[in-house]
Design brief:
This is Glycoside hydrolase family 15 protein. This protein is an alpha+beta fold. The chain is built from 16 helices and 28 strands. It folds into two domains: about 210 residues, Beta-galactosidase, Chain A, domain 5 (Distorted Sandwich), CATH 2.70.98.10; about 375 residues, Glycosyltransferase.
Length: about 600
């Protein structure tokens, strides 16, 4: 049986865990009690043995679905032969108490509340838990008026009460006005018994209160609001860290091997996360995220690891789950990620870029935090001439990636300006300026390929790379510089792909020409497709940027969710929903909204010296 297309899944989050619901109403992915825990439902990765929390209305087709208000409460409307049923599915949250900086507080329960709105309807539910990524059989028993699964710690309650028939089940006939509830908690029987109505009200209130802090009403306002809610759902309330995506091993090509676990925190997201959160009126979340990085990074002999776990760990083993067939037969299914051990020198600039924008807006970095940041600049001084794995984490040989040199320049430039903003005289500014100028000279001499007429992927080689769309966004060169405009054109010519129905997609690179060590193709990168929009704005090609943005945004479907990649026919690929895609969408909207006064958005990135 083929799985639903990725774009048909709904996303739920309580900012500590996340779930994906298929179009038929089944929860096919949920990791509890935190984002990176083993999956207790994983049908999305195996239609044969994967677990799911099923809910259906007898005789009804797939429901019409939408999110209510500015929340992650999913409303599904089934119309059956004798009546209409409305379900509200959500991971319960509440607003914080005074002094609680979390913004949104997870409650710890997955709720499914079903109301018969008209006529009569029969509903059926089944909880097929598959603990530890379906490696361990579940063991259910009745405990304290609920049903408890001892391997995963799940506890199920409901009204009417579910019964054990090998697995927890509910079969109920509803008439107009009747309500049925199922509450699946982790470890707390009291939550499994809590009435769903107050939980629903508190969840809606918390999301609406958070969203109301942003008054953005410019270009793409509705898409920006939905993307902001998705990003908040990927911000871990306990640590403040941003998850790249809530899923593992959703393929970058059907049947291919490019399947990775994204339930971790990448430094390379830092600057865009901080900029977007600040611009949309969420300085607390921006500060918590940046301080998570400052508190937990590990600089070992000048080596800044490219990623972290949610609790600040710097290593997690990568393993293959050979018993799972993978989404659409895409193997291997991987959990963990060995990119923790890579050398990615671009991360130095990503972190300093985030720190500068935060200081310029919020202005409350401490001397100790500044000292840690200055140590990163010193490391970039010492290491920028080295080869690395690059921003795309290519697992073959180390190379002199142009984007890594670009971010080395960013690190030095932002470090110099951060010291000035803080009035801090500790750093060796003369040395930093010399090295910054040396990086710039190196980039202009070796990153720009005269034969191609563009900045290219690796020093001295002709392949294109869409990471270089950020050259003007980082203010390395003005967007109207002929070399920048030519680079945009060459990237579009060689890495662009028409999108059915209008618009264009951008691939990050050509996998065959790059030699990334993996077999098969991949989809176009939505991050890069939105980055092209932003770059075109800074290049003065605003009309073209608007057309591209207008063509891309509807591809998120009625739920407004984007994966990492997309094919030319609009099929989503890769882990879903993807934070970086939603960040780039928001940045593109902000750039378009500031068109003609674009410097207002990127003023913090200008080289003041």
């Amino acid at each position: 049986m083929s799985p639903p297309p990725l774009g048909a899944y709904a996303f739920l989050s309580d900012c500590r865990t996340a779930a994906l619901l298929g179009p038929d109403g089944a929860v096919e992915w949920w990791c509890a009690p935190r984002f990176d825990a083993p999956a207790v439902f994983n049908r999305i990765l195996d239609r044969r043995i994967g677990g799911a929390f099923e809910l259906l209305v007898e005789g009804a087709d797939e429901p019409a679905r939408r999110y209510t208000g500015a929340s992650l409460v999913l409303e599904s409307r089934w119309t059956g032969p004798s009546g209409t049923v409305v379900a509200h599915d959500f991971l319960a949250v509440r607003a914080p108490e005074a002094g609680d900086e979390r913004g949104i507080v997870p409650v710890g329960v997955l709720v499914r509340r079903v109301t018969c709105e008209r006529g009569t309807a029969r509903i059926r539910a089944r909880v097929r838990a598959t603990p530890d990524h379906a490696r361990t059989p579940p063991r259910w028993a009745a405990v304290d008026g609920a049903l408890a699964e001892s391997v995963s710690g799940l506890v199920l309650g409901g009204d009417p009460a579910p019964v054990l028939r090998g697995e927890p089940c509910l079969d109920a006939e509803l008439t107009e006005g009747d309500v049925a509830e199922l509450r699946l908690a982790h470890g707390d029987p009291a939550l499994a018994r809590a009435p769903a109505g107050p939980l629903l009200d508190a969840t809606r209130h918390a999301w609406d209160a958070w969203s109301s802090r942003s008054g953005y009403d410019g270009v793409g306002a509705e898409d920006v609001r939905r993307s902001a809610v998705v990003l908040r759902g990927l911000l871990d309330s306990e640590s403040g860290a941003l998850l790249a995506a809530p899923t593992a091993s959703l393929p970058e090509w059907p049947g291919g091997e490019r399947n990775w676990d994204y339930r971790y925190v990448w430094h390379r997201d830092a600057a865009l996360v901080v900029l977007v959160l600040l611009r949309l009126g969420h300085p607390e979340e921006a500060g918590r995220y940046l301080r998570f990085l400052l508190r937990n990074w590990s600089a070992e002999h000048g080596h800044l690891r490219p990623m972290l776990t949610l609790d600040g760990g710097t290593r997690v083993a990568e393993e293959t789950l050979g018993h799972l067939e993978g989404y659409a037969g895409s193997r291997p299914v991987r959990i963990g990620n060995e990119a923790f051990d890579q050398v990615q020198l671009d991360v130095y600039g990503q972190v300093l870029d985030a720190a500068l924008v935060y200081q310029e807006v919020a202005g409350d970095l401490t001397p100790d935090e500044a000292a840690g940041l200055f140590a990163v600049v010193d490391a970039a001084c010492a290491r920028w001439r080295e080869p690395d794995h690059g921003i795309w984490e290519v697992r073959t040989r180390l190379r002199h990636w142009t984007s890594s040199k670009m971010y080395a320049w960013v690190c030095l430039d932002r470090g110099i300006r951060l010291a000035a903003a803080l009035g801090d005289e500790r750093p060796p500014l003369d040395r930093w300026r010399r090295e910054r100028d040396a990086v710039r000279a190196s980039l202009l001499a070796h990153g720009y390929h005269p034969g191609v007429g563009a900045f290219t992927q690796v020093y001295g080689e002709p392949e294109l790379d869409a990471s270089l769309l950020r050259l003007p966004l980082l203010q390395f060169l003005d967007g109207r510089d002929p070399r920048v405009r030519a680079t945009l054109d060459r990237i579009d010519e060689r890495l662009g792909e028409p999108l059915a129905g209008g618009g264009r997609l951008i691939h990050r690179y050509d996998p065959r020409a790059t030699g990334d060590g993996l077999d098969g193709p991949e989809g176009a990168f939505l991050l890069c497709s939105f980055d092209m929009v932003s770059a075109l704005v800074l290049a003065g090609r605003t009309d073209e940027a608007r057309r591209r943005f207008a063509a891309l945004c509807p591809r998120g479907g009625p739920l407004g969710l984007f994966a990492e990649e997309m094919t030319g026919d609009g099929t989503m690929l890769g882990n879903y929903p993807q934070a970086f895609t939603h960040l780039a969408l928001i940045e593109a909207a902000l750039n378009l909204d500031e068109a003609g006064r674009t410097e207002a958005l990127h003023a913090w990135a200008r080289d003041a010296e």
